[in-house]
Structures are given as C-alpha cells and as structure tokens.
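Just curious: can you write a single protein's sequence together with how it folds?
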Amino acid sequence: MIDPLGGARPDEQHRRDGRLPLLAPGVLSERQRAVYDALTGGPRGDRRAAPITDRGGRLLGPFNAMLYSPAVGMPLQELGAALRFETAFTGREREIATLVVAAHWRSDFEWHAHERLGRRAGLTEAELTALREGRAPLLADARERVVHEAARQLAAEQDLTDAVHTEAVATLGRTALVELVALVGYYAALALQMRVFRVGVPEGDAPPEWGSEA
C-alpha cells in the first residue's frame, strides 16, 4: 500500500515498527518537512538527551505520528515544546509529572525517553523506581511533592480534590497549575497515540519493567 502523504511503499522494517510506518526524511511533503525540521532543529534534537530519530533520520516515538497530519502535528509539537522548555517548572518537577503519566499509561517509549531526561534533571534511581512502580517517591521538596500528587490525581482521576487543588494553588500558583494540567493532558494524548499505533522503545533497547500496579 502506498502511503497517501509520503508516496512511499513501506518496507518490511517499517512494518515491524508499529501500525504507522516510519517516514524517511526523503519522502516528506513540504508541510511534513516543516514539522520534521521544527522537531529536529530545536532543543529536542539534542541526541545527548533522548534521541528522537533513528540512524536513518526517521522520527521515533510520538513524533512520527505528527508527520501524518501536519495540520495537527505542528501545533501539537509547539505545545510540547512550550511545556518542556517555556514553563517555570524545574527539570525535576517536569520529569516527575511526565513520568507519572508514562507509568499510569504504561507507555514504554514515553517512560524510556523521560527516564533518561529525569536522570539528567537529577532524579535518583530510587525516585525513578518508585515512579515506575506507581509509588510516591520520598521527595524532600514541597513543590515536588505537590507536583507529584497533583499529576497522580490528574492521571488517575482526571480531576483534583479540593484539598489538592487548594494546596497546588498555594504552593505552585495558578499559572503553574494551569501548565501542569496541560502537561498531564499532553503526555496522556501522546501515550494514547503510541498505544493505538503500537509504538515501542527504539530497536536494541529494553522496555521498562512495570510493577504489578502502575
């Protein structure tokens, strides 16, 4: 079957990559290429963090899906960039919230990528293990504890209790709480796409070991 956007015939390797063949840079339309360049030309393109392309330059994880609908993919990647690079959250706070979502959804790629980012932000192995197993890590910082509990409730209940809402406003402020709700929703959307399209970890990497309850 010919891909309706790129015009490429998926090869056997593409079929092993999930339900959406990975699109090579050379077959992209002009609008797809704009999304590709926005993703790889910004801070996300730093391979020292969490690589978003394979050796052939094809986008991995949730980013390949963004190419299939540039009209949605471009604003979606812009929202992701704003949430990662333009909020007032510390690296630790942001990755705690993101990893809560990844663990709730048991999203292999999301966890794989953000576990690496979490380590770079200073999360310890004990903290990462607790997050992966769906437990509350021992956090000394009050803001981090509020971020964790609010993200946990948002992921699990799609809401906040009055008590947690009040504490989040008092500790984080209303602006940060709006950003946290958006962050949880964004990474949940990516996790859903990766579940539907059967996106796993990059070739050669092991998937996370989920606990019995995550």
Observations:
- The longest helix spans residues 174-196.
- Residues 139 and 145 are 6 Å apart (CA to CA).
- DSSP finds ten helices and no strands in the chain.
- Confidence is low (pLDDT under 50) at residues 1-16.
